[in-house]
Amino acid sequence: MTIEARIRELGNRHRSLDETIQQEARRPTADPIQIRELKQRKLRLKEEITSLEARIH
Question: Where are the stretches annotated Disordered (predicted)?
């Protein structure tokens, strides 16, 4: 898999997590612990994307 393809894949996962976080936050019984864990996963993805982007620029 090329770096560009990996960045696209991670970007898709990042957007999907963002949607999941928004859906969870709108629920009346939103679980703040789950939201925090999802946000941490999203941040790790963003960090990996940034690292890969730095390698190709």
Answer: 1-31
For the chain, the straight-line distance linking the first and the last C-alpha, in angstroms and rounded, comes to: 18
One-letter amino acid for residue 51 of the chain = S
CA distance 5 to 31: 33
**Domain tally, the chain:** 1
Q: What angle do CA 14, 30, 13 make, to 5 degrees?
A: 10
Residue 50 has pLDDT above 90, yes or no: yes
Give the pTM.
Answer: 0.89
pLDDT higher than 90, residue 34: yes
